[in-house]
Amino acid sequence: ISGRGDWCISRQRSWGVPIPVFYDRETGNEVLLNQDTLTHIQSIIAEQGCDAWWKLDEVDLLPESYKAEAHKWKKGTDTMDVWFDSGSSWAGVAKGRDELAYPADVYLEGSDQHRGWFQSSLLTSVAANGQAPYKAVLTHGFVLDEKGFKMSKSLGNVISPMMMIEGGNNKKQQPAYGIDPLRLWVASVDYSGDVCIGDNIMKQTFESYRKLRNTARYLIGNLADYVPDGQEGSNAVPYDDLPSLDKWMLGRLSSTLREVNESYDEYQFYRAMQALLRFTSADLSNFYLDVAKDRLYTSAFDDARRRSCQTVLHACLEGLTKAIAPILPHMAEDIWQNIPYDKSTQSVFEGGMNSKLTEFEEYAGEQWDTILELRDDINKVLEIARTDKLVGASLDASVHIYAPEEVKKHLIGFDSDENILHPPVKTNGVDDLRTVLMISQVHLVDSPDDVSE
């Protein structure tokens, strides 16, 4: 804007929004444009539209106080620059409608509008009211094909959104992904630059969508007999009574939800989706749910281990459903309608995120980071052993662990009983190395030699 010249807002076009000015018919030098003429013309156009300027004579366009001298004036034929039209839309839309607000929360357009609509809107609003018409401006790049080329009919590389949603005639070659996976792709790319889309990209996006949906199905399937806190007959476990693993998981949930909310506030949707996908895949599905199967499937209905796990699953289900709702509204509503316990609202879109879900503190993070690293190391060794046909399932294995003291201190409290006991003696049956590593026996040894022996 600082380097911009004066803006000539008049255009000599055969059609457009007229500039409502009258000129002296003889000299063309004297101009008639004041509040009375503007108010009268405004009322005419509000009733008949802009074409009234071209259809009516001067005597009909002038207010009563000027009709007697209508023969003296000639209406102008210049039209407004179209950028003035769109640039003043804040007056007719944001400011002119009761359900909207001025200034608008955000103006959204492509990066080419930095010198277009964003500027013209800013200039007209500042000139008229001394303030910008928007609180924030959001710009995005352009959608390119899978190879990064601009879409063109001549190149035959135009990708229709409806094709992605509904599929083509051959559903095997052009499957119908539906609207939510397409929305997921939009939310998962960094729109600040140009973005690419194509069949392979949509297949990868759909895989992420499928993982989210399957995770939600698993959570729902294990909450059939669960009654949340605050409801009659609740079997939820209080936070202070939860095992360390469950407290850690709730801390990871809250941390993720806070990151998602912050990303939404900053319009960084791809960051929100990255956080959600990372949480559901790495923390929830690959670790917590994998470890939790034993206590969910083999424990008695009211076993404390099972109820504590359900308490965490309930929090994860509601938190994730609320978090994905702005991006995947159909999936979120589908999940909400299939939740088996009584809900606080009929729709996922009634009411916002439960603030309690974002308030769990990170718990024993360093300890669980150590255990997760150990789990990864053991899984790598087990994979080698499987390749060499030394073991089959991980439960066939006995693991001997030697670790430096600064690492070992995180494992001592998780040391398992020598043999499987019920109830366990050394641990609560959840915060147990044998359980979290999914190994039949775990031995903490004092030297590297003890491992080799």
From TrEMBL:
Listed GO biological process terms: isoleucyl-tRNA aminoacylation; mitochondrial translation
GO cellular component, as recorded: mitochondrion
UniProt keyword annotation of ATP-binding present: yes
GO MF term set: ATP binding; isoleucine-tRNA ligase activity; tRNA binding
Pfam families: Anticodon_1, tRNA-synt_1
ATP-binding in keyword set: yes
Domain spans labelled Methionyl/Valyl/Leucyl/Isoleucyl-tRNA synthetase anticodon-binding: 246-401
Keyword tags: Aminoacyl-tRNA synthetase, ATP-binding, Ligase, Nucleotide-binding, Protein biosynthesis
Xref: InterPro entries: aa-tRNA-synth_Ia, Anticodon_Ile_BEm, Ile-tRNA-ligase, Ile-tRNA_ligase, M/V/L/I-tRNA-synth_anticd-bd, Rossmann-like_a/b/a_fold, tRNAsynth_Ia_anticodon-bd
Chain ranges of the Aminoacyl-tRNA synthetase class Ia domain: 4-195
Designated name of the protein: Isoleucyl-tRNA synthetase
Organism: Proboscia inermis
